[in-house]
Structures are given as structure tokens and as C-alpha cells.
Amino acid sequence: MPYHLFVYEGRPFVYHLGLGKCLSVSPEAYELLALRQTMSKEEATQAFLAKRPDAEAVVRETETLEDCGFFEPAETGFETDDEQFEQALARRYEKDPWSHLELSLSERCNLACRYCYCGTCRDELPNNGLMPWETAKRAIDWLFARCRGQDVSITFFGGEPLLNKDVLKRAVAYSQELASAKGVQTTFVTTTNATLMDDETAELIAKNNFGLMVSLDGPQNLHDAQCPTRDGSGSWDLAVAGIRRLMKVRKRVTVRCTMAHPVPDMLKLVRFFTDFGFTRIVLGSVENPQFPSACDFTDEDRASEERQLTEKVVPWMLSELAAGRKPVYDPFADIEEAFKSAEPPTPSFFHCGACRGNMTVGADGALFPCHRFVGLRDWTLGSVEKGPDLDRCRKFWRDYRACVKEHCAGCWAYRLCGGPCPWRIARADGTFAMDPSVCEDAKRRICQGAWYLELKKDQENKHQQKGEIRK
User: Fold this and answer.
1) What is the pLDDT of residues 51-103, one digit of tens each?
2) Concatenated DSSP letters of 14-69
3) Inter-residue contact 426 to 289 (CB < 8 Å)
4) What does DSSP say about strands 360-361 and 367-368: parallel, antiparallel, or unpaired?
């Protein structure tokens, strides 16, 4: 059958692989749909009515689903045709314009976060310092030469990019000059710990409407424990002062909080960041697949995260909605968008912009699939002087596809998941190795998201009914 059945928090659901729709159904309909997975329509109906002779309405419910196409053949969305994949590779690296690039302005950091993956406090990864202006300029020239009239986006990353403010400012000004000459628009994105934020840089970010994310790991005791400075002192006061400078000149500021083992109280974090004034909250977990650390999330942490979302965070989200406020933390926004879309999600052959839009120029000019790979020399893709090695870019996605194909081709969740993040299944030696826990995390979030959206719908219906009664 082209659908997947699951129960979350006692609520039965059916998800159609082809339509990309998820519906809450009655327990009886769930039972009949389960029978139809192993029997013909007639056999399943007879077997069901033999146990529940008064359940004609349930049979009609499933027939309504049939009228909507719920029993039509459907694929998971994973394209198994290798020829089509090769054609997509050719378009990606031979025809499509190149309009986005990431610059690792600094592979140094003034902090020594306990969980950092990028080599600021580990010996395994080399540290190449600050990016010279000549390297940044060469990368920007290369990007504009290949944008083919498309608008351009540049992401400034690190380490801590504000350790290299001079190159940041010059890169913004120079990109705008080139954009004006070519008649295109240019946008900028950066992630910063904000400890080095001054009024001039805050104005630069606000004036140019940067896509912006600041790193803060919670209240002072938690943040200082996870994110000390290089000399071991706390970084909280510096970070908060920088964030306040930003908030003075722009209304919307997103915070990225990294949750390390053991998982903290998520609702306390959400309330803290909401009260602080952030307009969007992102809670991430520590994952270091190449060099596991004591800070990495464990299976127990993931179970606690799910439990906290169910028992604490979702009720808070519903209370915010009931009060007429949009929750500033919403881990299910992408799932809601997919379920509400008129068309089913159509995954790309490529999970993300790795080796393309997210390709990152290291401080020394080496190219990497994205910022997470910077410093892993077995993942280099060329240099800014010579340009990307397109054969290695193609190999990246061929190897990724070979690794995930068996798991993704028959997976019910693929249309919503799009496959695992390449970095999460990458190894330091330049190979991929599938990690089933990545898939389980994705499936669990989808099921939990479907449950939350049904609770949200129930609340909206009750609110509407109360309004009608008042009328």
C-alpha cells in the first residue's frame, strides 16, 4: 500500500507517500487500513466487518480515502534512475549558474566552546588563521564571474568571522560594487558569537539587512560553562553586550542555542530566549560524527529531547497560539509547510547545497563542501585559485547516493526528509557511512510534528466553535 501507518501519543495517523499528506484517523479506520496492507480490499473489509459488524461507517471512511487517491500507486520520491541522476549532476556542474558562496573569514575563535567541531579547541583539525583580503577578493571575483545574471548571496562564517572585521567590511563593499556593475542584487549572511560586536559592525549588518544568527547557549551559568573564552573566563557578558547592540539597530534577531550532553531543560531555554527578545529560536544538538566527544548527544538525550517537546514545549506552543502569538520556537514549521502544500514534496537528487551553493572557501583558499567540513583535508574540493574540482564534486554526490540509496529508496519518510545531512554521515577520511540513528531522528520528528499539528488543529476548531456559539 502507498501509505504508512503510525501512532503517536495514542493518536493514529496515515501518511500517503505520493500525496505527501498526513491524516489523523479513527482507531477503527487505522485497523482497517492495516488489514488492507496485507489483503485485498474485499478480504480486508470482510475480515474487519466479521469482528466489527457495526462498523459500516468506518468502511465508508476508508472508501472516502480511496476516492481521494489514497490507494493509488505511489513512490517514496527517491529517484532510482541513475541516468537521470547523472543528467542532474551535469546540469548542476555544467549548466546552472553559481550564485552563492561561503567564506570562512576566520578559522580561529576567541572562544573555546567545549563542543566545537571546527578545530578551535581540538588538535585533530588544522587551524589556518584569518582569511587574507586577496583570498576573499579572488573568491568574490570567481563567484560574480559565474553568476550569469543571477542575484548573489555570500555567507561569512568561522570560527568567529568578526575576528576578521576588516576583510568582512571590504568584502561587503566590493561585492556591492560588482553587483551594481552587473545589475544584480547581493545579499549577505553571517553567524557570530557577538562577543566582538561593536556599533559600527552592528550598523553594517543592519544597513545591509544581513541574514543573521547569533550563538548564545542560554542563561549565564549554562552559557559560560559551555562557551568559555580562550583564557577560560566566561563569555556571557561580552555576548549579551554585543547582542544588545544588534537589537538596537534591527528588530529581528535569531538565536542559535547548542544543547550539549546532558540535555538541558528545553522549556526554560525557550522562555529565557523569548524574554530576552529574540524573534526566532533555533535549538541544535551536539553531533560530532568525525570526532565524537563527551558533549555529543546520546540516545538518552534524544529520548529526553523528544519527551520534553511532547510534555513541555508543545503545550507552551499551543498556549502561545491560544494567546494570539506566533511561537518564536517552532521545530515543526517545515513539516507544517510540507503538509499544507498543494503539491507533494519533491526531493532533489541533492540533499542540500553542499559542493555548490554551500561550498565554503577556507581561510587559506581551500574549498570544502560546506562550512562543517572546513579543515578536513580529505574533503577538499580544490582551491579558490584554480576553482573547484568538479570531478570531486560529482564524486561527493555519487558516493553519497551510493551510501544512502538502499536506505532512502524504500523509506516512507523520504519526501519529507530528503535524506540525511551529508556531514552527519561523513567520515574524516573522505568516505560516507550510513548511520541509522539519523534516519530514526528524522522519522521521530515527522511523527511528532504530525501529532502537534493535529493538536493545533483541534485547538483552532474549539476556538472557532466557541466563537460561533457566542454569535
Assistant:
1) 888 888 899 888 888 888 888 888 888 989 999 999 999 999 998 999 999 99
2) EEETTTTEEEE--HHHHHHHHHHTTS-HHHHHHHHHHH-TT-HHHHHHHHHHHHTT
3) yes
4) antiparallel
